[in-house]
Amino acid sequence: MNAFLSELFESIALDTGYLNTYLSEREQQYLDQKIGSRADFEDDFYTDEEGGNLETLLHFLNCHKLDIAQILDDPSKKEILINLYTSRTISGDYNCFRFDLDKFKQTYKPIGEVKTVYRVGRENETINSLGNSWSTSHSGLKNYSQSSAICAVSRPVFEAEINDSEIFIQISSQEDELILKKKFTVNSCRELSDEEKKVIFA
Q: Could you read off the pLDDT of 31-75 as tens digits, one per residue?
């Protein structure tokens, strides 16, 4: 990975360790050759001919050029990272690159509550491999599935009880979204039955 890409991904909090496994060697070579400077980034770099994972990443970078430029100019603007994390270009309908939450700023202040939270998992997700984005309501789950254009009934759906000290960031959105800490723990967690999912997503 060239020096500019390293700076770019560090600035926007992408998990570069995972990115090296997410992208094939050919996809990494395209990326390294195509984006080697700020001028390259501001130019046209999108392609859909080098692999689906690379296309997903390039589409994201292309859609958020202005946000990313602001962070490159002023790395202290950590609040912009939330716009990237919650981007509508990232869907639960396919495997995606990952963010490194260690580079985000915690904004939620716990008050000692216990919360029930819900998550539509990715395909093959289990209680032992839970993601960090959750919702505080069934309606939030339904809005998420609709905005991502996924059939949530065919996905694993989880209900968990957590202490609010596990909440990293709360996002005001139709999805009632919470981002939990990088290595969060749950008090309890279960996968919902097909019948329960049908009621939520009816």
A: 999 999 999 999 999 998 899 999 999 999 999 999 999 999 998
Would you tell me how many other CB atoms lie within 10 Å of the CB of residue 73?
A: 10
* Contact between residue 129 and residue 158 where contact means Cβ atoms under 8 Å apart: no
| Residue appearing with tokens 């609040």 | 79
pLDDT band at 172 (very low <50, low <70, confident <90, very high): confident
Residue ending a domain, choose from 21, 54, 88: 88
Same domain assignment for residues 137 and 191: yes
DSSP 154: G
d(CA 199, CA 67): 38
User: Do residues 107 and 122 lie in contact, with contact meaning Cβ atoms separated by under 8 Å?
Assistant: no
Number of residues assigned to the chain: 202
Sequence-distant (6+) residues with CB within 8 A of 91 are 148, 149, 150
Cα separation, 132 vs 32, in Å, equals 29
- Domain extent, residue 52, equals 3-88
